[in-house]
Design a protein that fits this description.
- Strands 2, 3, 5, 6 and 7 form a 5-stranded mixed beta sheet that branches. A 4-stranded mixed beta sheet has the order 10-13-12-11. It has a two-stranded antiparallel sheet with strand order 1-4.
- The protein has helices spanning about 1-15, 80, 90-110, 120-130, 160-175, 240-255, 280-285, 290-300, 335-350, 365-370, 395-405, 410-425, 430-440, 460-475, 485-495, 500-520, 520-535, 550-570, 575, and strands spanning about 20-25, 30, 45, 55-60, 75, 145-150, 155, 180-185, 190-195, 210-215, 260, 265-275, 315-335.
- The longest helix is centred in the C-terminal third of the chain and has 22 residues, at about 500-520.
- It is about 40% helix and about 15% strand.
- The relative contact order is 0.08.
- A hairpin with a 6-residue loop joins strand 8 (about 180-185) and strand 9.
- The protein folds into 3 domains: about 1-250, no CATH class; about 265-440, no CATH class; about 460-575, no CATH class.
- It holds the Pfam family Cas_Csd1.
- It comes from Saccharothrix variisporea.
- This is CRISPR-associated Csd1 family protein.
Protein backbone atom coordinates (compact mmCIF):
# COMPACT_ATOMS: atom_id res chain seq x y z
CA UNK A 1 0.00 0.00 0.00
CA UNK A 2 2.93 2.39 0.66
CA UNK A 3 4.16 2.04 -2.93
CA UNK A 4 0.65 2.58 -4.28
CA UNK A 5 0.23 5.74 -2.20
CA UNK A 6 3.58 7.12 -3.42
CA UNK A 7 2.59 6.51 -7.05
CA UNK A 8 -0.75 8.16 -6.39
CA UNK A 9 1.01 11.14 -4.81
CA UNK A 10 3.27 11.49 -7.84
CA UNK A 11 0.38 11.25 -10.30
CA UNK A 12 -2.02 13.63 -8.55
CA UNK A 13 0.34 16.24 -7.10
CA UNK A 14 3.31 16.36 -9.46
CA UNK A 15 1.44 15.93 -12.71
CA UNK A 16 3.93 16.83 -15.45
CA UNK A 17 7.15 15.58 -13.85
CA UNK A 18 9.76 14.42 -16.38
CA UNK A 19 10.22 10.64 -16.12
CA UNK A 20 13.45 9.33 -14.60
CA UNK A 21 14.60 12.81 -13.55
CA UNK A 22 15.77 13.77 -10.07
CA UNK A 23 16.97 16.81 -8.20
CA UNK A 24 20.67 17.08 -7.43
CA UNK A 25 23.14 19.81 -6.60
CA UNK A 26 25.55 21.22 -9.21
CA UNK A 27 28.52 23.42 -8.42
CA UNK A 28 29.81 23.94 -11.97
CA UNK A 29 28.49 24.58 -15.49
CA UNK A 30 30.25 23.79 -18.77
CA UNK A 31 29.13 26.30 -21.47
CA UNK A 32 29.38 25.34 -25.14
CA UNK A 33 28.32 26.98 -28.38
CA UNK A 34 26.33 25.21 -31.11
CA UNK A 35 29.59 24.03 -32.75
CA UNK A 36 30.65 22.25 -29.56
CA UNK A 37 33.35 24.78 -28.63
CA UNK A 38 33.70 25.92 -24.99
CA UNK A 39 32.71 29.55 -24.47
CA UNK A 40 35.51 29.80 -21.93
CA UNK A 41 38.58 27.88 -20.96
CA UNK A 42 37.14 27.47 -17.47
CA UNK A 43 33.98 26.14 -15.86
CA UNK A 44 31.41 28.62 -14.61
CA UNK A 45 30.85 28.32 -10.83
CA UNK A 46 27.27 27.85 -9.61
CA UNK A 47 28.03 28.23 -5.90
CA UNK A 48 26.13 30.96 -4.09
CA UNK A 49 27.49 32.26 -0.78
CA UNK A 50 24.00 33.39 0.18
CA UNK A 51 22.94 29.72 0.02
CA UNK A 52 25.65 28.82 2.55
CA UNK A 53 28.14 27.99 -0.15
CA UNK A 54 25.83 25.45 -1.76
CA UNK A 55 25.49 24.73 -5.44
CA UNK A 56 22.43 25.09 -7.67
CA UNK A 57 19.78 22.36 -7.35
CA UNK A 58 18.50 21.23 -10.76
CA UNK A 59 16.18 18.47 -11.98
CA UNK A 60 18.24 16.31 -14.33
CA UNK A 61 18.17 12.78 -15.85
CA UNK A 62 19.30 10.38 -13.13
CA UNK A 63 18.97 6.74 -12.13
CA UNK A 64 20.04 4.71 -9.09
CA UNK A 65 23.78 4.07 -9.09
CA UNK A 66 25.17 1.70 -6.46
CA UNK A 67 28.56 0.02 -6.96
CA UNK A 68 28.68 -0.05 -10.76
CA UNK A 69 29.53 2.56 -13.38
CA UNK A 70 26.43 4.21 -14.87
CA UNK A 71 26.45 7.59 -16.56
CA UNK A 72 23.62 10.12 -16.43
CA UNK A 73 22.76 12.22 -19.46
CA UNK A 74 24.33 15.68 -19.94
CA UNK A 75 24.77 16.32 -16.20
CA UNK A 76 26.79 14.26 -13.76
CA UNK A 77 29.80 14.12 -11.43
CA UNK A 78 33.11 15.66 -12.48
CA UNK A 79 34.63 12.19 -12.86
CA UNK A 80 31.97 11.34 -15.44
CA UNK A 81 31.71 14.64 -17.35
CA UNK A 82 35.42 15.52 -17.59
CA UNK A 83 37.27 12.51 -16.17
CA UNK A 84 38.52 14.44 -13.13
CA UNK A 85 39.38 12.31 -10.11
CA UNK A 86 40.85 13.15 -6.71
CA UNK A 87 42.60 11.50 -3.79
CA UNK A 88 39.52 9.39 -3.02
CA UNK A 89 39.23 7.80 -6.49
CA UNK A 90 41.17 5.29 -8.54
CA UNK A 91 42.36 6.50 -11.96
CA UNK A 92 41.14 3.35 -13.70
CA UNK A 93 37.63 3.79 -12.37
CA UNK A 94 37.58 7.49 -13.22
CA UNK A 95 38.54 6.61 -16.79
CA UNK A 96 35.70 4.06 -16.85
CA UNK A 97 33.21 6.67 -15.66
CA UNK A 98 34.33 9.23 -18.23
CA UNK A 99 34.24 6.74 -21.08
CA UNK A 100 30.70 5.71 -20.06
CA UNK A 101 29.57 9.34 -20.10
CA UNK A 102 31.15 10.06 -23.50
CA UNK A 103 29.63 6.85 -24.87
CA UNK A 104 26.17 7.87 -23.62
CA UNK A 105 26.48 11.28 -25.31
CA UNK A 106 27.46 9.62 -28.58
CA UNK A 107 24.57 7.18 -28.28
CA UNK A 108 22.19 10.11 -27.72
CA UNK A 109 23.53 12.08 -30.69
CA UNK A 110 23.26 9.10 -33.08
CA UNK A 111 19.82 7.95 -31.88
CA UNK A 112 16.61 8.60 -33.75
CA UNK A 113 15.65 11.09 -31.02
CA UNK A 114 18.93 13.02 -30.99
CA UNK A 115 19.97 12.90 -34.62
CA UNK A 116 18.09 16.10 -35.48
CA UNK A 117 18.70 17.79 -32.11
CA UNK A 118 21.31 20.54 -32.48
CA UNK A 119 22.02 20.51 -28.75
CA UNK A 120 22.78 16.78 -28.73
CA UNK A 121 25.00 17.27 -31.78
CA UNK A 122 26.88 20.17 -30.16
CA UNK A 123 27.69 18.15 -27.01
CA UNK A 124 28.82 15.19 -29.15
CA UNK A 125 31.09 17.47 -31.24
CA UNK A 126 32.72 18.74 -28.03
CA UNK A 127 33.75 15.25 -26.98
CA UNK A 128 34.75 14.12 -30.48
CA UNK A 129 37.05 17.14 -30.82
CA UNK A 130 39.07 16.35 -27.69
CA UNK A 131 38.59 19.89 -26.39
CA UNK A 132 37.64 18.52 -22.94
CA UNK A 133 41.29 17.89 -22.13
CA UNK A 134 42.10 21.60 -22.60
CA UNK A 135 39.77 22.90 -19.90
CA UNK A 136 41.44 24.41 -16.82
CA UNK A 137 40.58 22.53 -13.64
CA UNK A 138 39.70 24.64 -10.57
CA UNK A 139 41.72 23.71 -7.49
CA UNK A 140 38.61 23.17 -5.37
CA UNK A 141 36.77 20.76 -7.67
CA UNK A 142 36.35 17.16 -6.48
CA UNK A 143 35.37 14.02 -8.34
CA UNK A 144 31.83 13.92 -6.87
CA UNK A 145 30.91 17.56 -7.50
CA UNK A 146 28.21 18.01 -10.13
CA UNK A 147 28.83 19.56 -13.56
CA UNK A 148 25.92 20.43 -15.86
CA UNK A 149 26.41 21.09 -19.60
CA UNK A 150 24.77 24.08 -21.31
CA UNK A 151 24.63 24.80 -25.04
CA UNK A 152 24.00 28.33 -26.25
CA UNK A 153 22.67 29.21 -22.78
CA UNK A 154 20.24 26.26 -22.59
CA UNK A 155 20.79 23.29 -20.30
CA UNK A 156 21.48 20.29 -22.53
CA UNK A 157 19.50 17.99 -20.24
CA UNK A 158 16.35 20.01 -20.99
CA UNK A 159 16.52 19.51 -24.74
CA UNK A 160 13.35 18.21 -26.42
CA UNK A 161 14.94 14.88 -27.36
CA UNK A 162 16.08 14.03 -23.84
CA UNK A 163 12.87 12.56 -22.40
CA UNK A 164 12.26 9.99 -25.14
CA UNK A 165 15.91 8.95 -25.40
CA UNK A 166 16.48 8.82 -21.64
CA UNK A 167 13.31 6.80 -21.01
CA UNK A 168 14.42 4.20 -23.55
CA UNK A 169 17.94 4.19 -22.08
CA UNK A 170 16.67 3.61 -18.55
CA UNK A 171 14.40 0.80 -19.80
CA UNK A 172 17.36 -0.93 -21.45
CA UNK A 173 19.44 -0.64 -18.26
CA UNK A 174 16.78 -1.55 -15.75
CA UNK A 175 15.11 -4.34 -17.69
CA UNK A 176 17.58 -6.96 -16.51
CA UNK A 177 20.75 -8.51 -17.83
CA UNK A 178 19.00 -11.15 -19.90
CA UNK A 179 16.53 -8.87 -21.62
CA UNK A 180 13.25 -7.34 -20.62
CA UNK A 181 11.02 -9.11 -18.14
CA UNK A 182 7.25 -8.80 -18.14
CA UNK A 183 4.81 -9.56 -15.36
CA UNK A 184 2.05 -8.32 -13.09
CA UNK A 185 3.08 -5.08 -11.35
CA UNK A 186 2.27 -5.27 -7.64
CA UNK A 187 1.62 -1.51 -7.58
CA UNK A 188 -0.74 -0.84 -10.48
CA UNK A 189 -1.90 -4.44 -11.02
CA UNK A 190 -1.23 -4.32 -14.78
CA UNK A 191 0.82 -6.68 -16.95
CA UNK A 192 3.82 -4.62 -18.04
CA UNK A 193 7.57 -4.59 -18.55
CA UNK A 194 9.24 -4.83 -15.14
CA UNK A 195 12.33 -3.12 -13.75
CA UNK A 196 15.35 -5.00 -12.49
CA UNK A 197 16.19 -2.20 -10.02
CA UNK A 198 14.34 0.94 -8.94
CA UNK A 199 15.36 3.66 -11.42
CA UNK A 200 15.37 6.66 -9.05
CA UNK A 201 17.38 7.80 -6.05
CA UNK A 202 16.49 9.80 -2.96
CA UNK A 203 19.03 12.54 -2.06
CA UNK A 204 20.97 11.59 1.04
CA UNK A 205 20.21 14.99 2.62
CA UNK A 206 16.56 13.90 2.95
CA UNK A 207 17.37 10.64 4.76
CA UNK A 208 18.79 10.84 8.32
CA UNK A 209 21.67 8.41 8.72
CA UNK A 210 22.35 7.99 5.00
CA UNK A 211 25.89 8.67 3.79
CA UNK A 212 24.98 8.46 0.09
CA UNK A 213 21.96 9.01 -2.11
CA UNK A 214 19.55 6.21 -1.30
CA UNK A 215 17.14 3.74 -2.86
CA UNK A 216 13.87 2.56 -1.35
CA UNK A 217 14.27 -0.96 -2.78
CA UNK A 218 17.73 -2.26 -3.67
CA UNK A 219 18.75 -5.92 -4.04
CA UNK A 220 22.15 -5.83 -5.71
CA UNK A 221 23.59 -8.79 -3.80
CA UNK A 222 22.10 -12.24 -3.28
CA UNK A 223 22.36 -11.96 0.49
CA UNK A 224 19.82 -9.10 0.44
CA UNK A 225 17.16 -10.88 -1.60
CA UNK A 226 14.47 -13.39 -0.75
CA UNK A 227 15.61 -16.95 -1.61
CA UNK A 228 19.07 -15.50 -2.46
CA UNK A 229 17.88 -13.72 -5.61
CA UNK A 230 19.11 -10.38 -6.91
CA UNK A 231 17.16 -7.59 -8.56
CA UNK A 232 13.43 -7.20 -7.99
CA UNK A 233 12.55 -10.80 -8.83
CA UNK A 234 10.22 -11.01 -5.86
CA UNK A 235 9.10 -7.37 -5.97
CA UNK A 236 7.61 -6.94 -9.45
CA UNK A 237 7.32 -3.23 -10.32
CA UNK A 238 6.77 -1.82 -13.78
CA UNK A 239 8.87 1.01 -15.22
CA UNK A 240 6.17 3.62 -14.86
CA UNK A 241 5.43 2.77 -11.23
CA UNK A 242 9.12 2.38 -10.39
CA UNK A 243 9.81 5.92 -11.53
CA UNK A 244 6.66 7.30 -9.86
CA UNK A 245 7.56 5.64 -6.54
CA UNK A 246 10.93 7.41 -6.45
CA UNK A 247 9.50 10.72 -7.68
CA UNK A 248 6.66 10.61 -5.17
CA UNK A 249 8.99 9.66 -2.31
CA UNK A 250 11.37 12.56 -3.00
CA UNK A 251 8.42 14.96 -3.24
CA UNK A 252 6.93 13.70 0.05
CA UNK A 253 10.23 13.91 1.93
CA UNK A 254 11.04 17.40 0.65
CA UNK A 255 7.55 18.82 1.21
CA UNK A 256 6.77 21.38 3.94
CA UNK A 257 4.93 18.57 5.78
CA UNK A 258 8.15 16.86 6.82
CA UNK A 259 10.02 16.83 10.14
CA UNK A 260 13.55 15.64 10.89
CA UNK A 261 14.81 17.16 14.18
CA UNK A 262 18.58 17.52 14.28
CA UNK A 263 20.22 14.62 16.08
CA UNK A 264 17.18 12.35 15.63
CA UNK A 265 17.57 9.36 13.28
CA UNK A 266 14.18 9.56 11.58
CA UNK A 267 12.40 11.82 9.11
CA UNK A 268 8.60 11.81 9.21
CA UNK A 269 6.50 13.15 6.33
CA UNK A 270 2.75 13.18 5.99
CA UNK A 271 -0.05 14.06 3.60
CA UNK A 272 -3.84 13.79 3.43
CA UNK A 273 -5.85 12.25 0.62
CA UNK A 274 -9.00 14.30 0.13
CA UNK A 275 -10.17 17.89 0.17
CA UNK A 276 -9.12 19.34 3.53
CA UNK A 277 -6.76 21.92 4.96
CA UNK A 278 -6.36 20.05 8.26
CA UNK A 279 -2.83 19.40 9.50
CA UNK A 280 -2.98 17.21 12.61
CA UNK A 281 0.79 16.99 13.08
CA UNK A 282 1.10 20.78 13.02
CA UNK A 283 -1.42 20.86 15.87
CA UNK A 284 0.62 18.25 17.77
CA UNK A 285 3.89 20.05 17.23
CA UNK A 286 2.69 23.54 18.13
CA UNK A 287 -0.10 22.84 20.64
CA UNK A 288 -1.24 26.45 20.69
CA UNK A 289 -3.57 26.67 23.76
CA UNK A 290 -6.42 28.29 21.81
CA UNK A 291 -6.12 25.83 18.92
CA UNK A 292 -6.04 22.84 21.29
CA UNK A 293 -9.07 24.12 23.21
CA UNK A 294 -11.03 24.59 19.98
CA UNK A 295 -9.94 21.19 18.68
CA UNK A 296 -10.94 19.33 21.85
CA UNK A 297 -14.28 21.14 21.94
CA UNK A 298 -15.22 20.10 18.40
CA UNK A 299 -13.60 16.70 17.79
CA UNK A 300 -16.29 14.64 19.56
CA UNK A 301 -19.33 16.46 18.21
CA UNK A 302 -21.52 14.72 15.68
CA UNK A 303 -18.97 12.45 13.97
CA UNK A 304 -20.24 8.86 13.61
CA UNK A 305 -17.93 5.88 14.12
CA UNK A 306 -18.94 4.35 10.78
CA UNK A 307 -17.55 7.13 8.58
CA UNK A 308 -18.29 6.99 4.84
CA UNK A 309 -15.68 5.21 2.67
CA UNK A 310 -14.80 8.37 0.69
CA UNK A 311 -13.63 10.33 3.74
CA UNK A 312 -10.18 11.92 4.00
CA UNK A 313 -7.29 9.52 4.60
CA UNK A 314 -4.19 10.43 6.59
CA UNK A 315 -0.82 9.01 5.47
CA UNK A 316 2.43 9.24 7.40
CA UNK A 317 5.84 7.81 6.48
CA UNK A 318 8.85 7.64 8.82
CA UNK A 319 12.19 6.66 7.32
CA UNK A 320 15.86 6.42 8.25
CA UNK A 321 18.98 5.63 6.26
CA UNK A 322 21.82 3.13 6.33
CA UNK A 323 24.60 4.10 3.90
CA UNK A 324 22.66 3.95 0.58
CA UNK A 325 19.48 2.22 1.68
CA UNK A 326 16.23 3.46 3.17
CA UNK A 327 14.68 1.86 6.24
CA UNK A 328 10.94 2.35 6.70
CA UNK A 329 10.47 2.81 10.44
CA UNK A 330 6.74 3.44 10.35
CA UNK A 331 3.91 3.66 7.84
CA UNK A 332 0.49 4.89 8.90
CA UNK A 333 -2.63 4.97 6.76
CA UNK A 334 -5.93 5.55 8.50
CA UNK A 335 -9.04 7.71 8.28
CA UNK A 336 -8.31 11.30 9.20
CA UNK A 337 -11.12 11.36 11.75
CA UNK A 338 -9.51 8.44 13.60
CA UNK A 339 -6.20 10.29 13.70
CA UNK A 340 -8.01 13.30 15.13
CA UNK A 341 -9.61 11.17 17.85
CA UNK A 342 -6.21 9.69 18.69
CA UNK A 343 -4.71 13.17 18.94
CA UNK A 344 -7.58 14.26 21.17
CA UNK A 345 -6.74 11.32 23.46
CA UNK A 346 -3.07 12.39 23.39
CA UNK A 347 -3.91 15.89 24.58
CA UNK A 348 -6.34 14.53 27.17
CA UNK A 349 -3.76 12.11 28.57
CA UNK A 350 -0.94 14.66 28.77
CA UNK A 351 -2.98 17.41 30.45
CA UNK A 352 -1.16 18.38 33.62
CA UNK A 353 -1.48 20.96 36.39
CA UNK A 354 1.24 23.56 36.09
CA UNK A 355 3.66 24.28 38.91
CA UNK A 356 3.08 27.95 38.15
CA UNK A 357 -0.23 29.85 38.04
CA UNK A 358 0.31 30.98 34.43
CA UNK A 359 1.65 27.66 33.10
CA UNK A 360 0.11 25.70 30.22
CA UNK A 361 -1.71 22.37 30.56
CA UNK A 362 -0.84 20.95 27.11
CA UNK A 363 2.60 20.81 25.56
CA UNK A 364 3.93 20.62 21.98
CA UNK A 365 5.29 17.27 20.88
CA UNK A 366 8.69 18.77 20.04
CA UNK A 367 8.89 20.16 23.58
CA UNK A 368 8.06 16.75 25.07
CA UNK A 369 10.85 15.20 23.00
CA UNK A 370 13.24 18.02 23.94
CA UNK A 371 12.51 17.43 27.64
CA UNK A 372 14.04 13.94 27.43
CA UNK A 373 17.46 15.55 27.01
CA UNK A 374 19.92 16.97 29.51
CA UNK A 375 18.90 20.01 31.61
CA UNK A 376 21.52 22.78 31.81
CA UNK A 377 20.01 24.82 34.64
CA UNK A 378 17.99 27.19 32.47
CA UNK A 379 17.27 25.19 29.26
CA UNK A 380 17.31 21.76 27.71
CA UNK A 381 20.13 20.62 25.44
CA UNK A 382 19.29 21.30 21.81
CA UNK A 383 18.48 18.45 19.45
CA UNK A 384 21.75 17.02 18.15
CA UNK A 385 23.93 18.95 20.62
CA UNK A 386 27.01 17.30 22.08
CA UNK A 387 26.13 15.50 25.31
CA UNK A 388 22.37 15.93 24.82
CA UNK A 389 21.76 12.51 26.46
CA UNK A 390 18.57 12.13 24.44
CA UNK A 391 17.40 8.94 22.64
CA UNK A 392 17.99 9.30 18.90
CA UNK A 393 14.49 8.13 18.00
CA UNK A 394 12.40 9.58 20.81
CA UNK A 395 10.63 12.13 18.61
CA UNK A 396 9.43 9.44 16.22
CA UNK A 397 8.41 7.18 19.12
CA UNK A 398 6.26 9.91 20.65
CA UNK A 399 4.76 10.90 17.30
CA UNK A 400 3.85 7.30 16.50
CA UNK A 401 2.24 6.86 19.92
CA UNK A 402 0.20 10.03 19.40
CA UNK A 403 -1.04 9.10 15.92
CA UNK A 404 -1.71 5.43 16.68
CA UNK A 405 -2.91 5.87 20.26
CA UNK A 406 -0.38 3.32 21.48
CA UNK A 407 1.55 3.24 24.73
CA UNK A 408 4.75 5.21 25.22
CA UNK A 409 7.62 2.65 25.06
CA UNK A 410 8.80 1.72 28.59
CA UNK A 411 12.36 2.59 27.59
CA UNK A 412 11.28 6.23 27.15
CA UNK A 413 9.79 6.32 30.66
CA UNK A 414 12.91 4.71 32.13
CA UNK A 415 15.13 7.24 30.37
CA UNK A 416 12.95 10.16 31.48
CA UNK A 417 12.96 9.13 35.15
CA UNK A 418 16.70 8.67 35.01
CA UNK A 419 17.18 12.15 33.50
CA UNK A 420 14.95 13.74 36.19
CA UNK A 421 16.99 12.00 38.87
CA UNK A 422 20.35 13.02 37.36
CA UNK A 423 19.32 16.59 36.50
CA UNK A 424 17.37 17.21 39.71
CA UNK A 425 14.79 18.90 37.52
CA UNK A 426 11.06 18.23 37.06
CA UNK A 427 8.98 20.81 35.21
CA UNK A 428 5.53 20.89 33.63
CA UNK A 429 6.71 19.35 30.35
CA UNK A 430 8.38 16.38 31.98
CA UNK A 431 5.37 15.88 34.26
CA UNK A 432 3.09 15.83 31.21
CA UNK A 433 5.27 13.16 29.61
CA UNK A 434 5.21 11.13 32.83
CA UNK A 435 1.42 11.19 32.81
CA UNK A 436 1.35 10.17 29.15
CA UNK A 437 3.63 7.24 29.89
CA UNK A 438 1.28 6.04 32.64
CA UNK A 439 -2.01 6.55 30.79
CA UNK A 440 -1.75 6.78 27.00
CA UNK A 441 -2.77 3.66 25.13
CA UNK A 442 -3.01 1.63 28.34
CA UNK A 443 -5.81 -0.88 28.95
CA UNK A 444 -5.52 -0.78 32.74
CA UNK A 445 -8.22 0.84 34.89
CA UNK A 446 -5.64 2.87 36.80
CA UNK A 447 -6.56 6.56 36.87
CA UNK A 448 -3.89 9.24 36.84
CA UNK A 449 -5.42 12.67 37.35
CA UNK A 450 -4.06 15.83 35.69
CA UNK A 451 -4.42 17.76 38.96
CA UNK A 452 -3.83 16.96 42.61
CA UNK A 453 -5.69 13.79 43.61
CA UNK A 454 -6.13 13.99 47.41
CA UNK A 455 -7.96 10.64 47.55
CA UNK A 456 -5.27 8.68 45.73
CA UNK A 457 -4.12 5.82 47.98
CA UNK A 458 -1.07 4.94 45.90
CA UNK A 459 1.80 4.93 48.40
CA UNK A 460 4.35 6.24 45.88
CA UNK A 461 2.06 9.11 44.84
CA UNK A 462 1.50 10.20 48.45
CA UNK A 463 5.23 9.87 49.17
CA UNK A 464 5.86 12.35 46.36
CA UNK A 465 3.31 14.74 47.85
CA UNK A 466 4.94 14.45 51.26
CA UNK A 467 8.38 15.22 49.82
CA UNK A 468 7.02 18.35 48.09
CA UNK A 469 5.36 19.50 51.34
CA UNK A 470 8.60 19.08 53.32
CA UNK A 471 10.44 21.04 50.66
CA UNK A 472 7.83 23.80 50.85
CA UNK A 473 8.02 23.92 54.64
CA UNK A 474 11.79 24.48 54.55
CA UNK A 475 11.43 27.18 51.88
CA UNK A 476 8.69 28.95 53.84
CA UNK A 477 10.65 28.79 57.10
CA UNK A 478 13.84 30.08 55.47
CA UNK A 479 12.17 32.71 53.30
CA UNK A 480 14.70 35.46 52.63
CA UNK A 481 17.61 33.38 53.95
CA UNK A 482 20.38 31.96 51.81
CA UNK A 483 20.76 28.18 52.09
CA UNK A 484 23.75 26.44 50.49
CA UNK A 485 22.09 23.03 50.25
CA UNK A 486 18.34 22.62 50.57
CA UNK A 487 16.39 19.55 51.55
CA UNK A 488 15.51 19.05 47.90
CA UNK A 489 19.14 19.36 46.83
CA UNK A 490 20.20 16.64 49.25
CA UNK A 491 17.42 14.09 48.93
CA UNK A 492 15.45 14.52 45.68
CA UNK A 493 17.47 12.14 43.48
CA UNK A 494 17.55 9.38 46.09
CA UNK A 495 13.91 9.83 47.07
CA UNK A 496 12.77 8.84 43.58
CA UNK A 497 13.93 5.27 44.15
CA UNK A 498 13.92 5.15 47.99
CA UNK A 499 11.55 7.72 49.52
CA UNK A 500 11.58 6.20 53.00
CA UNK A 501 15.03 7.50 53.99
CA UNK A 502 14.34 10.96 52.53
CA UNK A 503 10.94 11.34 54.23
CA UNK A 504 12.18 10.13 57.60
CA UNK A 505 15.03 12.68 57.48
CA UNK A 506 12.64 15.38 56.24
CA UNK A 507 10.07 14.71 58.96
CA UNK A 508 12.78 15.00 61.58
CA UNK A 509 14.03 18.33 60.20
CA UNK A 510 10.48 19.62 59.72
CA UNK A 511 10.07 19.99 63.48
CA UNK A 512 12.65 22.76 63.51
CA UNK A 513 11.26 24.36 60.36
CA UNK A 514 7.72 24.32 61.76
CA UNK A 515 8.89 25.75 65.07
CA UNK A 516 10.31 28.73 63.22
CA UNK A 517 7.12 29.08 61.15
CA UNK A 518 4.94 29.13 64.25
CA UNK A 519 6.81 32.23 65.41
CA UNK A 520 6.70 34.07 62.09
CA UNK A 521 3.71 32.64 60.18
CA UNK A 522 1.53 30.64 62.57
CA UNK A 523 -1.31 30.21 60.08
CA UNK A 524 1.03 28.68 57.54
CA UNK A 525 2.48 26.31 60.13
CA UNK A 526 -1.02 25.03 60.95
CA UNK A 527 -1.73 24.58 57.22
CA UNK A 528 1.38 22.46 56.69
CA UNK A 529 0.73 20.36 59.80
CA UNK A 530 -2.74 19.56 58.50
CA UNK A 531 -1.47 18.77 54.99
CA UNK A 532 1.24 16.39 56.25
CA UNK A 533 -1.21 14.60 58.52
CA UNK A 534 -3.63 14.12 55.62
CA UNK A 535 -0.94 12.81 53.27
CA UNK A 536 0.53 10.29 55.73
CA UNK A 537 -2.98 9.16 56.67
CA UNK A 538 -3.58 8.17 53.01
CA UNK A 539 -0.66 5.75 52.98
CA UNK A 540 -2.29 2.28 53.35
CA UNK A 541 -1.95 0.77 56.79
CA UNK A 542 0.63 -1.98 57.01
CA UNK A 543 2.46 -0.92 53.86
CA UNK A 544 4.30 2.09 55.24
CA UNK A 545 6.70 4.18 53.22
CA UNK A 546 8.36 2.24 50.38
CA UNK A 547 12.11 1.68 50.66
CA UNK A 548 12.48 0.75 46.99
CA UNK A 549 10.17 1.42 44.05
CA UNK A 550 9.72 0.04 40.55
CA UNK A 551 9.54 2.23 37.46
CA UNK A 552 5.78 2.81 37.65
CA UNK A 553 6.03 3.78 41.32
CA UNK A 554 8.89 6.18 40.59
CA UNK A 555 6.72 7.90 37.99
CA UNK A 556 3.83 8.07 40.47
CA UNK A 557 6.15 9.58 43.09
CA UNK A 558 7.21 12.29 40.65
CA UNK A 559 3.60 13.04 39.67
CA UNK A 560 2.57 13.32 43.32
CA UNK A 561 5.50 15.65 43.89
CA UNK A 562 4.59 17.78 40.86
CA UNK A 563 0.87 17.88 41.69
CA UNK A 564 1.53 19.04 45.24
CA UNK A 565 3.78 21.83 44.01
CA UNK A 566 1.21 22.85 41.41
CA UNK A 567 -1.50 22.81 44.05
CA UNK A 568 0.47 25.22 46.25
CA UNK A 569 1.21 27.45 43.24
CA UNK A 570 -2.49 27.83 42.48
CA UNK A 571 -3.73 28.08 46.06
CA UNK A 572 -4.43 31.32 47.89
CA UNK A 573 -1.22 30.97 49.88
CA UNK A 574 0.77 30.01 46.80
CA UNK A 575 2.83 33.16 46.24
CA UNK A 576 4.01 33.08 49.86
CA UNK A 577 5.08 29.43 49.91
CA UNK A 578 5.79 28.39 46.34
CA UNK A 579 8.71 25.99 46.22
CA UNK A 580 10.89 28.44 44.31
CA UNK A 581 14.41 27.53 43.22
CA UNK A 582 15.08 24.06 44.55
CA UNK A 583 16.87 21.02 43.23
CA UNK A 584 13.71 20.19 41.30
CA UNK A 585 12.86 23.61 39.96
CA UNK A 586 9.79 24.19 37.86
Amino acid sequence: MLLQRLVEYSDTRLGHARPFHREREFRWRLDLDLDGRPLSGELAPLVDEQRRNRGLVLTVPAVVRTVGVAANLAADDAQYVLGWGDDTTKPARVAQCHNAFVGLIEKWATSDDGRDDEIAQAVAKFYRSGLASGLARPDEVTSKQGIVIAVNGELACRSDSVVAFWTAEVASRKGGKTGSRHGLCLVCGKYRELVETVPGKVPGRLVPGASNDTALVSVNERVFGYDLTTGLENTPICFRCGDAVSTGLVAVLSSPHSIAPRGQNTRTSWWIIGETDDDPIALLDKADPDDVATFLATIHTGVPDDDPPDMEVFCSLSIAGNVARIMVRDWIEMPLIKVKRNIAAWFHNQEIASAWPTGRRHHPLWRLALATGRWYGNRYADFGASGEARPHNVYQQLLSAALRKTAIPPVVLAHLVNRIRNDGHLDDTRAALLRLALTHGKTTKETVMPDLDPGNTDTAYQAGRAFALLEQIQNAAGSGERVNTTYGDRFFGGAITNPRAALVAGSRNAKAWQKKLRRTKPGLAVYFDKQLDEVFALIPEGKGLPAAMNLRQQAQFLLGYHHQRGHRASSTAGPETNSGDTAATA
